[in-house]
Structure formats: structure tokens, C-alpha cells
Amino acid sequence: MTDDSLPGALAGLRVIEWCDEKGAYAGKLLADMGADVIKVEPLHGDPTRQYAPFADDQPHPERSLWWWQYNTSKRGITLNLEVERGRQLFQELVATADVVIESRPPGEMAAWGIDYGDLKPRNASLIWVAITPFGRDGSRAHEEATDLTLLAGGGPVWMNGYDDHSLPPVRGGGNQGYHTGCHYAFLTLLVALLHRDETGEGQFIDVNMHAAANVTTEAGSYEWLVRQRTVQRQTGRHAAANPTIPTQVRCADGVYINTGIAPRRPHEFRRIHDWLEDLCLLDQFDAAPILLVAAEGEEIPPGRIYDDEEAAAKVTAGREGINVIAANLTAGEFFSQGQARGFQFGIVYAPEEMMEDRHFIARGFPVEVEHPELGRAFRYPGAPYRFQRSPWRIAGRAPLLGEDNGAVYGELGLSDQDLAQLKADGVI
User: Fold this and answer.
1) Are 156 and 216 in contact (CB under 8 A)?
2) Rounded average pLDDT over 252-264
3) Do 209 and 132 contact (CB within 8 A), yes or no?
4) What are the strands of the beta sheet with 75-78, ordered from one edge?
5) Which of 246, 260, 245, 235 is nearest to 334 (CA)?
6) Using CB atoms within 10 A as the burial measure, which of 100, 219, 331, 354 is most buried?
7) Could you tell me if 220 and 239 are in contact, meaning their C-beta atoms sit under 8 angstroms apart?
8) What is the rounded CA–CA span in Å between residue 321 and residue 154?
9) pLDDT above 70: residue 2
10) Element (H, E) at 169
């Protein structure tokens, strides 16, 4: 168990975030791990505050579930960077920070005199992370992109879909293109922090989201680059140059389950045979004798099934035996019994179903987050990992527009009178 009074892993790290929807997730990853992330918004608010859906289906910039999800644990300020005084305040903020994360169009910050090269002299240990669709330089640097075009151009879309190739490819939902780029930003930032701990030096990190998507295609890109082979989309399993046996099957209650990697080891074939026997299903499975032969044989290397008929027959029998079992059990029964027998099966959940899963609940994955302005709490997805001595936590709901202006600008030495004047001048 963890002690929730302990600081997060990144406690003490001060981050200035000036990101649109492409980079907001990187800031959230840092904030929920304890960093003090200060979200900079224009005076009228970040555009994602207008993104549906909204709490209670009431459109309002403080009720966007998109905004809520991507900005937990952050502090929020407004700042007009189009005016000189706003840019001066930004420079003062950066001078106090460890990290800047931004996803602005290449050239914009340099034109305003507030880019990494401009601000590094005041803060030599500063780490600056730029998140852009195609990197800060190169022939495509100034092209725009969406989550869809990043995934399509990077390759993942081509690799996702169904065995029936008359159907178009499928883009994964949930901003996976943006998330992939943000994960690379987060990971590289952690490495840069380790480097700074050793040398005291900051550095500039240029994250290319298109490239991040491309190197997340597993073997897809390399199959073509190295072997000149194109991988093919397959339902619910990895794209591959050669077709593989389907892995998603429907259980007796109509719920799909992913049966994972095909059995290849002798003890796996034995367990499938015994499972069929325990369920009185051997008579329904003509290939049962093949399972017994495979149980007395050797482990089958993955590639052998493509050029060895006997190996292919054994693996196919194992897979089909699992399918027979699944067809006679509910998804919950199949999952629990399969796990008990050492198989890595997983129920295909809708997002809302996952939040009700007893295992996730026992792990503390669903998290209640208070929204004082609405007088109630809402349930959020939590972390997929647990730290014993530096716990992850959502420190608070996403900031209201300009909610932390007083606190953050006060840390720069500005008085309430100063803030009132800056607001009247259209600076904050």
C-alpha cells in the first residue's frame, strides 16, 4: 500500500505549459505525478473548453469533460502573449521554471522573442519540450495536422481494421496520435531531467508527433524497410505480412474475449485438453487427439507454423479448442477459469464497463475527483501503475479560467493592485 501523504515522484518540478490539444496530455502526465504544472491560456480560454461532451449535457467552458480529463492537477492562468507586457510576464514565469512544454506552430514563439534560444540565457538549466506535428524544422515543419492525419500518415491507421479488406482501415479512438507524441515528450523529458541532475545543463527537445506515430507501428514499418513486405490488417490482432489465426471470439453471453497468443508449449496443450474434459466438451472437439500429441512434443517456435504442417495443425487445434471452450462459457467464467489455468485472456470491454471491473476497482483505478463549484465529485480514470513511495494522484480538478492568476502572479511579486491593472489592460 502507498502512503497518500507522500509527495509525488515529480514533486518540486515547476512546469510552464502552453499547449493546445496536441500537447495537453503531456502536461497532465507530469501534473498527476506531482509536478507543479502551470497551464497558460489566452484571455478567452483554451479552445478545448468548448469541446463536447459536457457535464449534465450543459454546454459551458467549465463543464467540458475533454477539458476536465486533460488538465487535472494543473494550475491555470490567463495571459495575453500578443502584447509586450504579456510576453514579459511569460519570460518572468519561465525564469522560475524547470521545464517548458509547448505545442505552438514553429516560428511563432521565435517571432515574439520568447523561444528557447531567447530565454535560455536567464535559465541555463531550463528544459524546453516542443511538441509539433512534424518537428520544428524540415520540409513539413509548417504543415498542420489532426489526430487522424497523424495516425494515418504515421502508419497506425493502415495497420488497424478487419480481416475483410473491402472495409476501410480504422483509426483508433481517444486521441491516440496526440497521446503517442505526448508520451514521447514525457519520456524524453524524464531522460533530460536525469541528464540535468548529472550536469546541471538544460536542453531543447524537439518532438515530431508524426515520427512518434511511425515508430509505434511495431514491425509494420520495418517489415517494409527491411524485407519489402507490407503488413495486412487483421481483426483484433497484430498486423502481419502472413495471416494469423483469429484471436477474438464471442462467449456464450455474447461478450467478446481476446484469447491472446496461440498455445505453443506442451503444458498449454495439456491444460486445454484437461479444461475441455472438465467441461465435458471433448466429444464436441474432433481435434482433441492432436492436443494430446502436442502435449507430448516440444515447444513450437512462432515461425514454424508457416512451413511445418504438423506444427500448424497443433497450434490450430489449440486455438480451436480454446474457441470451443469460450463458446460454452460466459466471458467472466472464461476469463477467470483461463487465468487460473495460466492463460492470458482478456475481456473486450467498453470504456464504461472497464470502470466497473472488480479488478480495476480493487486496484483503485477509478478515482473520485471533487468539483467544489458543482458541489459534487466525478469519477475519473486513474493510473495504470502504483508507486510505493511517491504515489500518483489527481491533486485537483482542472482549473477554472484564470483561477490561479492571483497565486501564480503573486509568486512573481505582483500585488492585487498590479493584477487589477493588468486585467484592465487586457494582459491577464
Assistant:
1) yes
2) 93
3) yes
4) 75-78, 36-41, 14-18, 99-102, 127-132, 203-208
5) 260
6) 100
7) yes
8) 37
9) no
10) none
Write the CB contacts of 394 (distance below 8 Å, at least 6 apart in sequence): 32, 72, 73, 367, 369, 380, 382
Q: Distance between CA atoms of 334 and 339, rounded to whole angstroms?
A: 8
Coil vs helix vs strand at 172 = coil
Of the pLDDT bands very low, low, confident and very high (cuts 50, 70, 90), residue 260 is confident
pLDDT, mean over the chain: 95
- The residues near 145 (Cβ < 8 Å, ≥ 6 apart) are 133, 134, 153, 209, 210
Under 8 Å between Cβ of 217 and 154: yes
Tell me the torsion sign for CA atoms 172, 177, 179, 181: positive
CB atoms within 10 A of CB 18: 23
- Read off φ and ψ for residue 415, nearest 5 degrees: -90, 170
- Spatial contact of 40 and 79, defined as CB atoms under 8 Å apart: yes
> What is the amino acid identity at position 90?
F
Altogether, the residues listed in the chain come to a count of 428
Identity of residue 290 = I
Please state, in angstroms and rounded to a whole number, the distance separating the CA atoms of residues 69 and 25: 9
Over range 134-147, report the average pLDDT. Answer: 96
**Best CA proximity match to 101, nearest among 19, 194, 172, 184:** 19
Phi-psi domain of 267 (left: phi exceeds 0; alpha: psi -120 through 50; beta: other): alpha
Single pTM value for the model: 0.91
Which among 10, 6, 14, 7 is positioned nearest to 36, based on CA atoms?
14
